[in-house]
Amino acid sequence: MSADHQARSRASGERLTDKIKSLAGVRSVLLTHDEAAHDDAGLLVLWDTEPPAGDEDELLDGVEFRITHRRVATVDQWIADVIGGADPDLVKQHLIATIRDGVVLHDTGLIPAWTARTGRYPDELASAMVRAHLNFRSSGQRSRMLERGDLLPLAQDRLDTARNVLLVLFGLNRIWFAHPGFAGVSRLAESLPLAPAGLPARLDALFTATPASSVPAADALISETLILIARHLPDAGAATALARLSRFTGRA
């Protein structure tokens, strides 16, 4: 988002908030940015009472806002699920990331308390996040797709590989899932301290490689990711997944 668009979004968001915060039951309003929608902005409105059903779109001063409503009790429960129950649900994590990263335009004390509660990414959640996304296909499955000329399933495998690599690395690095559309994959990959060497370029290469070269590229990326996880989160199941992958790739 450009600095000019960011400033216009902030100013327009404040104008919308002036109207919204006077509604009965509104506790907080956050300005958010939808990475998947590029320059568009959003407002997260938090209610004590039952909020309006569904999201709303509003155009103001050339800025299109997606207005999302959540009940405070729901947010409290979701944070408890994730922090206390190690629930790796991506929708719940995205909400936590939005609360932590959003710009507060109106608040009655909720946001600092929630930010403090989510300040530490629990070890149990890191392991749960990894286990939830270890469903990589084997090299043998990819090779058979290639041999049969099943290019559409092979293309889907490239997407699944990139997605799952990023998700398990988010868990390993204890980073809240903030990008449901996976926009800006290169920037996401660059932000990870623990990751296979050259991760951004290798993720990009998965989508530009020929079908034949994408199979070994995916194998290598998955293998290196699993080795990292097995080293730093030994109880997350990566060693078992690596052994399964190795049976099909000829690696020891």
What's the helical proportion of residues? 55-70%
Q: Helix segment count?
A: 11
Low-confidence segments, ≥5 residues, pLDDT <50?
none
User: Distance between the terminal alpha carbons, to the nearest Å?
Assistant: 46 Å
Write down the domain tally.
2
Overall shape: elongated
Assembly type of the chains comes to single chain
- Main sheet makeup: 5 strands, mixed
Mean pLDDT: 90
The string of secondary-structure elements, in order, is HEEEEHHEHHHHHHHH
Protein name: DUF4037 domain-containing protein
Organism: Actinoplanes derwentensis
Domain DUF4037: 92-176
Please give a structural write-up.
The chain is an alpha+beta fold. It has 2 domains: 3-120, 2-Layer Sandwich (Beta Polymerase, domain 2); 125-249. It is built from 11 helices and 5 strands. The chain has helices at 3-20, 72-85, 90-101, 110-117, 123-132, 139-148, 151-173, 185-190, 199-208, 211-232, 238-249; strands at 26-33, 41-47, 56-60, 63-71, 103-106. A 5-stranded mixed sheet has the order 3-4-2-1-5, with helices on both faces. A hairpin with a 7-residue loop joins strand 1 (26-33) and strand 2 (41-47). Helix 2 crosses helix 3 (90-101), helix 5 runs antiparallel to helix 7 (151-173) and helix 6 runs antiparallel to helix 7 (151-173). The chain is elongated, with a radius of gyration of 21 Å. It starts with a helix and ends with a helix.
Secondary-structure map with pairings?
Blueprint: H1 3-20, E1 26-33, E2 41-47, E3 56-60, E4 63-71, H2 72-85, H3 90-101, E5 103-106, H4 110-117, H5 123-132, H6 139-148, H7 151-173, H8 185-190, H9 199-208, H10 211-232, H11 238-249
Parallel strand pairs: 2-4
Antiparallel strand pairs: 1-2, 1-5, 3-4
Helix pairs in contact: 2-3, 5-7, 6-7, 6-10, 7-10, 9-10, 10-11
